[in-house]
């Protein structure tokens, strides 16, 4: 028989594709919906998730903010945190794990206490985003900081920019990365002159419509 005859299961010259014998649906760990008394959910997390669910007609829509609440509490989406959220939301942990593992901003493994996301998308890239990312990586090396490149963070007007613990800064120079990291670790205000929050609103500028 030619090696190209038929699918692998019929051809001794080809390895048998598992999908031929087992199908293409990956096996799922079918843990049911945990009960609240089984997961020891902190009351503040339970209240927060319940408030989030109340915002949506379908509680499934609260999955991402609920996982964000888990991450805020534990630093990442821990298996136990996911089980707690699942118990509150009446989902299986697998339901929430599939959401958590899909989104870059949700972590299913431990990361540093601080988070730095450097935008490397087109506007920031053209203005030195890659160099900025390298500088943050070097400055944060060995520290309790998670540094990563990121797609457009929606603040192209301050390119190149970075999100540092969920606050936006820009336009940044690569040389400022070290200072920013030192200030972050020291618990100081980070690059106050580069903080987006310190910039005036358009309505407050001359000609603005306040
Ligand atoms: S390209 Fe960097 S914020 Fe948009």
Description:
By secondary structure, this protein is α+β, with helices and mostly antiparallel strands. It is built from nine helices and four strands. It has helices at 18-22, 36-39, 43-53, 63-74, 79-89, 93-100, 122-126, 129-140, 177-185; strands spanning 114-119, 145-150, 162-164, 167-169. It has a four-stranded mixed sheet, with helices on one face. Helix 3 (43-53) runs antiparallel to helix 4 (63-74). The chain starts with 17 loop residues before the first helix and ends in a 25-residue tail after the last helix. Bound molecules: FE2/S2 (inorganic) cluster (FES). FE2/S2 (inorganic) cluster binds at residues 119, 121-124, 152-156, 159, 161.
Secondary structure topology:
Layout: H1 18-22, H2 36-39, H3 43-53, H4 63-74, H5 79-89, H6 93-100, E1 114-119, H7 122-126, H8 129-140, E2 145-150, E3 162-164, E4 167-169, H9 177-185
Parallel strand pairs: 1-2
Antiparallel strand pairs: 1-3, 3-4
Key attributes of the depicted protein:
9 helices; 210 residues; alpha+beta; globular; 37% helix; four-stranded mixed beta sheet; single chain; binds FE2/S2 (inorganic) cluster; 9% strand
Brief account:
The protein has nine helices and four strands, in the order H-H-H-H-H-H-E-H-H-E-E-E-H.
